[in-house]
Amino acid sequence: MAGVYPEAVFNGADPLYQPGQVGYYYMHFGGSPEEYPDRYQRITSENLVDKEHTPPMLIIYGTSDHYVPVKSTRKFIKVLDEKGINYKSIEVPFAEHIFDMLGGSIGSQIYEQSSLKWFELYYK
After folding, report:
1. Distance CA 75, CA 60 (A)
2. How far apart are CA 16 and CA 1, in angstroms?
3. Among 31, 69, 71, 108, which is 20 to 30 Å from 7 by CA?
4. pLDDT in tens for each of the 124 residues of the chain?
5. pTM over 0.70
6. What gap in Å lies between CA 18 and CA 24, rounded to an integer?
7. CA dist., res. 85 & res. 59, Å (int)
């Protein structure tokens, strides 16, 4: 979901992760959101979705994500509501970014079971 609001990730980087996060964006975009706003806007998710072309979306995110700010994920969910896009969102309490990578954890079980049900429902 790094594309949700890349400027939020850049500007709201957690101090612990900031060198890696900001370095990635400099490498990818050539500079900051202030220097290249058009580049950042091109991959901002709300600018890429519309009711006609966006398939049903499943959004599963941790409420303690230090990489993608939770408020930006919630902002994107509001945009989906406003645009009338079919989606389901699931918040995993206290979960960090990539919480689903810890095999067998509660977060990975939520991710796996929810994803399987979602794909069964929409993508048989």
Report:
1. 14
2. 20
3. 108
4. 445 889 888 887 777 777 888 888 899 999 999 999 999 999 999 999 999 999 999 999 999 998 888 999 999 999 999 999 999 999 999 999 999 998 899 999 999 999 999 999 998 7
5. yes
6. 10
7. 12
State the Cα torsion 109-113-115-117 to the nearest 10°.
Answer: -170
What's the token pair of residue 87?
Answer: 């989606």
One-character DSSP codes across 29-81: HSS-TTT-HHHHHHT-GGGT--TTTPPPEEEEEETT-SSS-HHHHHHHHHHHH
- Which amino acid, residue 81? D
Roughly how many angstroms between the first and final C-alpha of the chain, as a whole number? 24
Residue type, 101: M
* Beta carbons of 2 and 22 less than 8 angstroms apart: no
Match 């945009």 to its residue by tokens. 79
Tokens at residue 115, please? 């994803």
Given a contact cutoff of 8 angstroms between Cβ atoms, the answer to whether 99 and 105 are in contact is yes
Enter the DSSP assignment of 99: G
